[in-house]
Amino acid sequence: MDLNIRRAEEADSDDLTAISFASKGHWNYPEEYFDIWNKELTITPDYIRQNGVFLAEAEGVSVGYASIVEVKDDIRINQVVIPRGFWLEHLFVKPEFIGRRIGMQLITFLKRWCGGEGIERLHIFSDPHARGFYEKVGARYIGEVPSSVAGRTVPFYVLQI
User: Fold this and answer.
1) In the predicted model, is pLDDT for residue 83 greater than 90?
2) CB of 111 within 8 A of CB of 11?
């Protein structure tokens, strides 16, 4: 698939939000999870302005996106410490395009971009369903951490650039 990856623009925010919810919805999570995730899955123009957000398009259609954020100081949220550094906060692909190597192409793009920015590693809190993907792209599994959903954990990875 011929893919164009570009820096997202503020006007892309609704499209990116729709991709977030559709991709997460692909895994049939309970509706109450989406109430918890609403804020983190909603991509605002401010979010796009303040972070590295990249949109993947195929034949003019948005098919996925990824975002990198910088955490400037360690943050403690309950029993989880989010270490300072750069994070792959989102990598979502529209469900009908999953399995077409779009995620892999986004990772390849992000590695090049990070290298150019002097970023040596990305931290990742992965959806449990994406565990195999992150291992396939070479991310190192660190362990499980509590999720924003009570009683649930998510895998924590580090991807060396």
Assistant:
1) no
2) no
Taking the domains of the chain in order of start, what are their residue ranges?
4-160
30 has a pLDDT exceeding 70? yes
The helix (run of H) or strand (run of E) holding residue 89 is strand 85-93
Q: Which fold has domain 4-160?
A: Aminopeptidase (3.40.630)
Check residue 140 and report its DSSP letter.
E
Report residue 133's pLDDT band, with 50, 70 and 90 as the boundaries.
very high
H or E element in which residue 122 lies: strand 121-125
Residue 108 in tokens: 């390849």
What is the per-residue pLDDT for 79?
A: 65
Backbone angles phi, psi at 29, to 5 degrees: -70, 150
Of 83, 102, 106, 86, the closest CA to residue 94 belongs to 102
Kindly tell me if the per-residue pLDDT of 77 is higher than 80.
no
